[in-house]
Amino acid sequence: TKTVRLDNAASRLDCYLDVERPAAQCNLHMYARFNDSDTYKKLESAVIPVSNSFQEIHFRTKPSDDSPTAAGQTFDKFQVKIVMTTIGSDGVTADTATIPMARNFRAIATA
């Protein structure tokens, strides 16, 4: 995504995304980077259930992470990256016929 610039510094990032995960072989992960860092940090979430309907999934920064969101540190810019993966029945090859789908992305940065 584009870099989001905040008017006020924040210490926590909560992201919400409606996800459809039609098979166990496919998945979706969300990453964020803060301020001018070159490193994306994986956001934590509950296990995304296998379903043929969209379900809201909550992704958030990890409090124990070494990102700017840990130990009271703050950020005033962030970027989010969504990674969709799929693997074949052999556990290696990509099965591009079955993919996760996503919609309705929301990000909330709080102090």
Features:
about 110 residues, mainly beta, four-stranded antiparallel beta sheet, 8 strands
Can you give a write-up of this model?
This protein has 111 residues and is an all-beta fold. 0% of the residues lie in helices and 51% in strands. The chain contains no helices and eight strands. The strands form two sheets. It has a four-stranded antiparallel β-sheet with strand order 1-7-3-4, with no helix packed on it. A four-stranded antiparallel β-sheet has the order 5-6-2-8, with no helix packed on it. It is elongated, with a radius of gyration of 15 Å. 20% of the residues are buried.
Q: Concise description?
A:
This protein is an all-beta fold. Helices cover 0% and strands 51% of the residues.
